[in-house]
Amino acid sequence: MEEPPAVGQCAPIMARWPSHERYFRTLAGLFLLVFALLALHPSDRSDWALENALVVPAAIFLVATRRRLPFSRISYTLIFLFLCLHEVGGHYTYAAVPYDRWFEGLTGRTFGSMVGW
Predict the structure, then answer these.
(1) Distance between alpha carbon 21 and the CA centroid of its chain, in Å?
(2) What is the number of structural domains in the chain?
(3) What pLDDT digit, counting tens, does each position of 22-40 carry?
(4) Over the stretch 11-25, which tens digit does the pLDDT of each residue have?
(5) Does residue 10 sit within a domain?
(6) CA-to-CA distance for 81 and 61, rounded, in angstroms?
(7) Within a domain: residue 7?
(8) DSSP label at residue 94
(9) Dihedral sign for Cα atoms in the order 38, 43, 49, 53
(10) Which residues constitute the domain of residue 70?
(11) What is the gyration radius of the CA atoms in the chain, in angstroms?
């Protein structure tokens, strides 16, 4: 039977994971890409600006405190997913997001017809 790694050493699978800083930078770069793409031609520019009035300071706060107050990878991933969904909502305005059209394109049926709305 193989012995577990000594204290202070990581398991072989963990040795292949990107560093915490690299993971954060990758998510930050992906979010900047999403932010930039969805900033182009939003449905309502003033609504988009209002939706992002707190996103920009929050992102700056996360970048500034990433070393003194590090979150787990799962936390950063969930924050990233939330912010990406928030950007989609801000781009279209939340009431006009064409999720039903997207769902129909993927499955051939509308989401509303599947759940009875």
Answers:
(1) 16
(2) 1
(3) 999 999 999 999 999 999 9
(4) 555 556 678 899 999
(5) no
(6) 17
(7) no
(8) G
(9) negative
(10) 19-115
(11) 20
Reported pTM: 0.75
Contact between 104 and 96 (Cβ < 8 Å): no
- Whole-angstrom CA distances from 110 to 3, 96, 106, 116 are 53, 15, 9, 10
* 69 burial level (CB within 10 Å; 0-12, 13-18, 19+): exposed
Q: How far apart are CA 87 and CA 31, in angstroms?
A: 9
- Classify residue 28 as exposed, middle or buried by CB count within 10 Å of its CB (0-12, 13-18, 19+): middle
Q: Is residue 9 in a domain?
A: no
Going by C-alpha positions, the residue among 86, 88, 77 that lies closest to residue 28 is 77
At 115, the pLDDT band (50, 70, 90 cuts) reads: confident
Contact predicate 42/48, CB 8 Å: yes
